Write the structure tokens for this entry.
Amino acid sequence: MAIGIEEALAGQLIDIRRHLHAYPELSGEEYETTASIRGWLEREGIRIAAYPLKTGLVAEIGGMREGPVVALRADIDALPIQEETGLPFASRRSGAMHACGHDFHTAALIGAAVLLKRREAELPGTVRLLFQPAEEKAKGAAEVIASGALAGVGAVFGLHNKPDLPVGTIGIRSGPIMAAADGFAVEVDGKGTHAAVPEAGIDPLVTAAHMLTALQSIVSRSVSSLDSAVVSVTRLSAGTSWNVIPELAIFDGTIRTFDEGVRAEVRRRFEQVVNGVAAAFGTTARTRWTGGPPPVVNDARWARTAAKAAAVAGLEVVEPRPSPAGEDFALYLKEAPGAFVFLGTNGPREWHHPAFDVDESALPGAAAYLAAVAAEALAALSAEGAGAGPHAAARAESGDGRAEAGAVT
Ligand code: NI
């Protein structure tokens, strides 16, 4: 049976999404966005929790009785992109745009909050709503965790819109769904000399060129054909003149992997190639890592709960291809098990495109899904927390070994 969202609420959520879309704020600067979210929640009588966050906020529903805590997360920040959609509610701020649909995520979570508030008295625990800042800089999840908002959370859920999935579908999978996004920057030392007298120096350009070529063999020769990885060098810079061999070459880029073991091996091989090629050319190099988020890895049990909630919300479950983009939701999954899903929004363009848009008719389904998954997870955790009963024992036996991770004080 589908959870119905009446037309009035659906219309309100679309208005909220359009307001957020028209007034985007960049990562870490979501002051007005935070104030708007606070206003919408307070109008519904939803209590704001006192976690110390500069931007973003945490709210709670339920908790009338002792019980488990389930967290729902929406990211709220925009991107430094000039919008080109031509929509009537297009960004009114030059150089800022909700080009990843976080406006949609925020509106969906507010919708879920309204639905859950209506059922507050029946909730066997607490639903904690995480309106997270700075996802695009992969900083916000760490800030939310540092604020203490993941303490006591038994399961955590979130979603991302997906332009290549039709409205009415939801992509759910157990295991990895988004990639680890590691950044690297390499400095290759040279010894400057006249371009006509290369034997008097060390050429960092030729050395870097060999590194770039050799790095491309990591994925083909060091990663199993059954795993996947991307190594992309995206910037290379050296020299200032046509007749001078410079002192330094620098390049940077990114590595994407879906498994911590593959991630570690690719990074190990990367440094081995860089240092080995440098040695072969009689010089040295340094690799600096800018740690992006780890892979987003869904828990099998909670992926099944997500599928159950999708059915309640009237959505069709499809098996999604994992995305090589990064998501700092991965950090929450290090704190508590859970599931991150793709919600079909049938957009004309991929994420981060200046003409990116979502089909708003997906909004009621997204809100209904989030409310349903929180309710399902609370019910499962509270049944388990009931302790020594026969249900708890049966659940522990039939579980996938993660049941103990769901225990909540
Ligand atoms: Ni995004």
Observations:
- The longest strand covers residues 153-162.
- Residues 363-385 form the longest helix (23 residues).
